[in-house]
Amino acid sequence: MSSFLTDLFNSIFTPGPTHTLLVATNASFACLQLLLAVLFIATYSIHFIILSGLCGGLWWAINWFVAELAAAKQKEEEAERLRNVRKGKERQISPAEGSETEGETVARAGREGAREAAKAVSKELEPLAVPPAETIRKRRSLAGEMSTEDEWEKVEEEAAKDR
Questions:
Q1: Does pTM surpass 0.70?
Q2: Is there a contact between 36 and 51 (Cβ–Cβ < 8 Å)?
Q3: What is the DSSP track for 57-81?
Q4: Neighbour-count burial of 101, counting CB atoms closer than 10 A to its CB (0-12 exposed, 13-18 middle, 19+ buried)
Q5: Which of 31, 32, 33, 10 has the alpha carbon at shortest distance from 20?
């Protein structure tokens, strides 16, 4: 029992769902369902049926989420394993023939194709034209000519004229 509590405490600081945490969660929800059933029998209040339904839905959702995390982790591990296998094939050279393997040939062709595409794109792109310094100075001076305060003064003057 003490090792379970120690594992439960340590599982709080472990990322992802641990077996100990899942056991504690499921036991807690089972006890809550039992308590709600006893309270319903004692009072015949529909509130306990509703609470039991909510509790059951949350319990199911937590277990579904944990199952989805496990499936995603398994997919990621399988993908990592396949990546490692592919990397190994690209680097291997057939000992009998002394030539490149199919994976290495495909990888090299992919790199060469990417280089050619990058060259074609860079030829199509034109460099950006930098505006002359005079234009920049004009823009800065235009921005500083009128402030929000000046605009409000004009509005007030126009309102005073209308009166």
A1: no
A2: yes
A3: HHHHHHHHHHHHHHHHHHHHHHHHH
A4: middle
A5: 10
> Considering only CA atoms, which of 24, 1, 26, 2 is closest in space to residue 12?
24
pLDDT digits (tens, 9 = 90+) for 47-62: 999 999 999 999 999 9
Q: 97 pLDDT exceeds 90?
A: no
- Predicted local confidence at residue 60, as pLDDT: 97
pLDDT of 66 reads 95
Q: What span, in angstroms and rounded, lies between the C-alpha atoms of 41 and 125? A: 77
Q: Which helix (H) or strand (E) holds 129?
A: none
Distance between CA atoms of residues 62 and 30, nearest Å: 13
Residue 27, strand partner residues: none
Summarised one tens digit per residue, pLDDT across range 6-48 is 888 888 888 888 899 999 999 999 999 999 999 999 999 999 9
Farthest CA pair distance, the chain: 101
Q: Which residues of 37-75 are buried (b: 16+ CB within 10 A; e: fewer)?
A: eeebeeeeeeebeebbeebeeebeeeeeebeeeeeeeee
